Amino acid sequence: LAGSYNNKAFALDSLGRPKEAADILDKAIGIYERLVYKEGRWELVERLAKTKFNKAQILFALGEKNQATEAMEVIELLEEGIRRGGGESLRKSLLQVRGLIKEIFYE
Hints:
This protein is mostly helical. The protein has a single domain, classed as Serine Threonine Protein Phosphatase 5, Tetratricopeptide repeat (Alpha Horseshoe), CATH 1.25.40. It contains 5 helices and no strands. The chain has helices spanning 2-14, 18-38, 45-62, 67-83, 88-106. The longest helix is centred in the first third of the chain and has 21 residues, at 18-38. The chain is globular, with a radius of gyration of 13 Å.
């Protein structure tokens, strides 16, 4: 279901409806947070992180201030996933996110 919400958010954003896309991403984030934090499904932490980062990018485009907080949470999530034994995929995602954050928020 969270994946479907992500797809719907992408479509809404592509149609020029970013606020609706951000709202839909909140639903996906809620599902992933429950799975990761309450059910211990740490293999899904990368999906949670990417969903949060997608929302941060949308909020940035909307000029909202809390996008930086969302983006920093993504880094913390990926780092926690790595500490819990996450593999090379998480390390690559962490490097990508750090690069994107630098590009988006600091240039």
